[in-house]
Specification:
- The protein is an alpha/beta fold.
- The protein has 10 helices and 10 strands.
- The chain has a 6-stranded mixed β-sheet with strand order 6-7-8-3-9-10, sandwiched between helices. It has a 4-stranded antiparallel β-sheet with strand order 2-1-4-5, with helices on one face.
- Helix 3 crosses helix 5 and helix 3 packs parallel to helix 6.
- The longest helix is centred in the middle third of the chain and has 20 residues.
- It is globular.
- It binds adenosine-5'-triphosphate (ATP).
Length: about 250
C-alpha cells in the first residue's frame, strides 16, 4: 500500500480552479518532488494534504486512511508534518525549545501530571529532551541547542524548521521550498541533510522546490503542476527534458 494516495484531487476558490484532477501516489520511503511555475497550485496541494483547505473533489489517503474532513492537528497526529515557504519558528525561543514544541503536540499529559510534576511528567519531559537532542545531532545543530532561534544563520534556521517538523515522528514530511533563499553551499548541505533524514527516520518526503539542482540531485520522481493540472510525471531526467515542462517554465 502506498504511504500517500491522492486521487482526482481538486479545489476551487470562487471561479478559480486552483487544483484540478490531481492523482499522485508515493510509496513508503519515497523522496518525491512537486514542481511547477509560480501559482501552479503546489502550496494549495500541501494545504489540502494537511487539512488547511478542504478539497472540493477527490480523495487523500495516508496508509489507506482517509484524511479528507480531518482537522490539521488530527492529520498531524496521524503522521503528516510540514514546513512552510516562509520561516515560521519561534524566534525568541531556544533551538531546543523550538524542536520540543513540535513534540508537545504528540505527548499528552494528564492535568494531574502537569500540575503536580509527578514522576511520569519528568520521564516524558526527559524523553522529549533526549529525542529533540538526537534530532538536533542529525541536523548538526546540537551545539546551538541553547541559542535563540533568531540568532541562527538563515540556512540553519531552515534546517531547524525541518528538525521541528520531524520531531512529531511523521510518516510523511512535506517540505515547502526548503532551499528558498539559500546560497549554493547551504543548498548542498540541505541536500545531504534531507538524504540523511530519510535514511535515519525512514520518512516519506514530498517537497516543493524551484531549485532544479536540488530537485534533480535528490528526488527520485517528480510531479509537475501547471495551472493546477498535472502536466507531467516521472523521473527527474525524463520530466526536466520534457518540452512541455520546459515551455511551462519558460512561458511562450
Ligand atoms: N485561499 C485562497 N483563496 C483564493 N485563491 C487562492 C487561495 N489559495 C491559493 N489561491 C490561488 O491558487 C493558485 C495557486 O496558488 P499556490 O500558492 O498554490 O501556487 P504555488 O504553485 O504554490 O505558487 P508559488 O510557487 O509561487 O508558491 C493561485 O492563483 C492563488 O492565488
Amino acid at each position: 500500500m502506498a504511504t500517500l494516495e491522492v486521487t482526482g484531487l481538486g479545489i476551487s476558490f470562487g471561479g478559480l480552479r486552483a487544483v484540478d484532477d490531481l492523482t499522485m501516489s508515493i510509496e513508503k520511503g519515497g523522496l518525491v518532488g512537486l514542481i511547477g511555475p509560480n501559482g501552479a497550485g503546489k502550496t494549495t496541494v500541501f494545504n489540502m494534504l494537511t487539512g488547511v483547505y478542504r478539497p472540493t473533489d477527490g480523495g487523500i489517503r495516508l496508509n489507506g486512511e482517509n484524511l479528507i474532513g480531518k482537522k490539521p492537528y488530527e492529520i498531524n497526529r496521524m503522521g503528516v508534518a510540514r514546513t512552510f515557504q516562509n520561516i515560521r519558528l519561534f524566534p525568541q525561543q531556544s533551538v531546543l525549545d523550538n524542536v520540543m514544541t513540535g513534540l508537545n503536540n504528540q505527548v499528552q499529559y494528564s492535568l494531574a501530571e502537569s500540575l503536580l510534576h509527578v514522576g511520569s511528567y519528568h520521564k516524558k519531559e526527559k524523553e522529549m529532551t533526549e529525542r529533540s537532542m538526537e534530532i538536533l545531532r542529525v541536523f548538526g545543530l546540537e551545539d546551538s541547542a541553547q541559542t535563540l532561534a533568531s540568532n541562527l544563520p538563515y540556512g540553519k534556521q531552515r534546517k531547524l524548521e525541518i528538525a521541528r517538523a520531524l520531531a512529531t515522528k511523521p510518516e510523511l514530511l512535506l517540505l515547502d521550498e526548503p532551499a528558498a533563499g539559500m546560497n549554493p553551499n547551504e543548498t548542498g548541505e540541505l541536500m545531504d541533510t534531507i538524504r540523511l533524514v530519510r535514511k535515519e527516520y525512514q520518512v516519506t518526503i514530498l517537497l516543493i522546490e524551484h531549485d532544479m539542482k536540488l530537485v534533480q540531485g535528490i528526488c527520485e520522481y517528480l510531479y509537475v503542476l501547471n495551472f493546477g493540472r498535472l502536466l507531467a510525471e516521472g523521473t527527474p531526467d525524463k520530466v526536466l527534458n520534457d518540452p512541455a515542462v520546459v515551455k511551462a517554465y519558460l512561458g511562450d
